[in-house]
Amino acid sequence: MNPEFILGLILLLIGSAVSAFPRPKNYLIQLINLEIPGWGLLLVMLSYNEALALFTFGGVSALSTFILVRVIEKRRPI
Amino acid sequence: MDSLLVVIFGFIAVIGALTTAFNREPYIKLISMSMMIGGIFPFIVDRGFLDVAAATAVIAPISTIFILLICRKGEP
Amino acid sequence: MWEEYSIGLLGVLLCGVIAFVALAIEKDDLHRLLLIDLVEIPSLGIVALLATDLAEALILPGLVVGIAELLALSQIYLVKEGLKEQPEGRLHIEVIEYADAPLILSLFLVVYGIILSGFTGGGVAGLGVVFYFMSRGYKEDLSLLEAAAGISWAIWIVSFFVFMFLPQYWLLAVFGAGGGILLKVIAKMSLVGTMWGRSHE
Amino acid sequence: MLPDFLRILIAAPVCWILYITIDVYFKLPEQGGVSGATAIAKDIERGGGALHGGYMMGNIVSSPDASAGTLLASCGVTAAGIPGGLFAALLVYIGNRICYDPGYAGTTGAVVATFVVFGFTQIGFAASDFVAGMVIAILTIQGLSHSHASRLLATLWRWRS
Amino acid sequence: MSSVGGTPLFLLEFGDIVMYFTPYTTSLFILALVFTCIVILSRPENQLDIIFGSDGYYTKETEVEELRFRRFMSIACGLACLGATVTGDVFDFTLFVSLVGITNVGIVAAVRSRHVQNAAFQYGIVALAGTVPLFGGAAIVAATNGTLSMIELSARTMSGVPLIAKALLTLGVMGEGMAPFYAAKAEMFRAPGAPYVIMCSLSSLLIFLRVVEVIITM
Amino acid sequence: MIISRISAFISDFENLMPLFAGACALLFIIGILMLPLPYEEKQLYPKQINRSSTLDPYDRGGSPFTRATIISQYPQNSPTAGYVTTYLTPLSWFLANTTQHLGTTIVAHPGGILDEILYNTRGLDTVVEPTILFIAFAIGSYLFRRG
Amino acid sequence: MEVALLIALSVCAIIAAYAAVRVVLEKRPLRKLPYLNVLSFAISGSLLLILPHPLSIVVAVAYFVGSTLESNAIASTYAGGIQKDG
Prior knowledge:
The structure holds seven protein chains of seven kinds.
Chain B: H1 3-22, H2 26-46, H3 50-68
Helix pairs in contact in B: 1-2, 2-3
Chain E: E1 10-14, E2 17-21, H1 23-41, E3 48-50, E4 57-59, H2 64-86, H3 90-109, H4 114-145, H5 150-155, H6 163-176, H7 179-183, H8 186-190, H9 194-217
Antiparallel strand pairs in E: 1-2, 3-4
Helix pairs in contact in E: 1-2, 1-9, 2-3, 2-9, 3-4, 3-9, 4-6, 6-9
Chain G: H1 3-25, H2 29-50, H3 54-79
Helix pairs in contact in G: 1-2, 2-3
């Protein structure tokens, strides 16, 4: 149980709670909230020294943000 | 890492996450998220994964710029 | 015997419960799509708790697969809602429009991605390409990319059979596999970037 | 050999003078480099500050200027001596290109700071003192009171012009 | 190895992943193979609608490209079924099942009708959510037993696979195999290219049958 | 009748998603209740961390073109397992001899333990994954081009 | 770790914590950015001091430039971007 692990779990829980029930409820807020559990998972991976997985996760989560932005942008107004 | 430093950086990350989570303004959320990421970086560097840290530092703002595309432009 | 594995599993499963409850009561389709992105995180978390090299070998491709399925679903969503109007798709600020930020950053990411190779390199380099396309509003013919993806898939399959049936040539197969997957993932991800523009023709 | 805290407290004003001089010399307080910097300046002026000081603070926020050059150069000297500092200067130049800035202030600051910090290491200071000193120096401008800091910077700008 | 499917007749080894052909899995494999061949060979006919009250009729226009795409997806689905029926590794099985899921989404989504597109989207969401229990179940199996190979797992005298992992795997397969619920609209079966829709149902049936064997064996 | 009502509920595909998500949530809660799960210490491909090595998080022993010992499931099926783990390209050889903290870059470059697992011993997994990628992008680009 | 490094690191970390508190307490988004700037100065200083190695320079610069770019983009987008003249 190292500090990264505990911190990661805290961020994971906060993040998934607020991105499951965003407030105010719109797509932009939910998309921003989605970043928090991502960074939490990154810390959990860090605590197990899974550097390559962490790295790939960083890149891929940015890409998935882009994909979701593309959908939301086409669906204006938010 | 020293336990004092762990507490401080953990505090920055958690307080950043909480502000990101419970604020209602998109811009303030993005600023707080940047703060949270600042708290997380020392942990990555402390493990000695310098290449991962450098690349992640470049990727994080790109992700923010993607999100800025849908923040309403010119509107506080 | 509440050791670290069980505690981690508790946290990750709680996240899963929260996400699935939200998914169960959600009615709006786009919110569902966003929640699906959330639900992926606990599943990766459960795998990450395995804490061996095997865990990483299971996470890496799982990530790439997750994003591919997300892309397919988002495209189905756009088609089903009939959303075709042009998004503006550009950010009118100095850093993107005038500065060299997109060029330098994407160059860095692409070069570094090619050095990395494999799934990781593909993801990183693909991100660089997507960022460049996004900021410059560039459009490219899709057919070239698809051909590249097909060829790289074939390279990878050949390398797989070399590994399985001609193990003495493993060195060749490592390079074939790494390069093939790199090319494939970059090509697919750049497809995302070109889709940012208007639809073909 | 001075005690540790005292060395940091001496390093802070040295860094402060260094980066303020270079920033004012390269006319950072004249106008905002990007629209974000201008907006920050206007916001600070509305909060009771001075416009030209606000421009400088906005420019510091939105691109790596001499203060960043000083910080990163002293980081470089801490890690690898003079070559580290010059390498940091090169990276700061690239960073300036990324952030839509001509890059004179940041690079000059980094190069000058490399030699200043190296000079101080010869008389018993540690390069890491300058990292902490620079953080304290930037705290006095950006982190304590925006209105007072911007008025101070505007006064300095009036002398320059 | 003793399992419900009988003793393996033949093992096909790809490194750590061993495909095993017991009588049970072999029969599923042959079924999948036959249907894949049917899909490859079948030429979907054009559908005729008779105008009521007269002798006239017209042919429903469908694009060649759409049919070709759906046929490609069906073939891929058949190949995925082939893999899913014989693979001897839990994680590999989950991957093949998610491949079946995404190809089924493709088969449904290619139809140009808003209603069907909506069904495809809903099914796609279920399929993507289904990967969560699938991967989770496989990871729990690996963590509690230290192996992913079904042959190893069935060779253990005392089964160490927790019940929750089995339940997660089953639920995941149910999520991926929900295609018939979405395709079971009359218009889908009446639409041109119906053999491809039957492929959906068949693949779901096959992966259901296979997951039963997997969880009993473990 | 209750059965007809259930079948009416299920036949509307809008309702299936909430049903499935609810089932997943329920199962996860059951999973939490069953929790302290025993973690098997004897895992395949275990991690060893050697902080002083230049290949830091991925140092699995061995020098180039020798065999490392890999704890895989069926060692007899992969006769060359262990060579890829120790292999370093010239670039990564240079990096490994120069600096201490670039272990991730070195392992992501061709060669290394993850390439061993992904391409060699568990290659079939990796065959399926690019195929999923391929299928998903085929669906996306087909729908995009059709407009 | 040397004493000088440790003290410098503690100074950086405490200033980072102070800046974080100020970021949270400030109400207006544009006024938060200078405090965020202090935070990123402190963090990039401590990144190097945690592990003084030549490669850490790259990490510190990458983090600093990334954070600056982010602030720049946020501020410019908030301000409305490039004003079209004429």
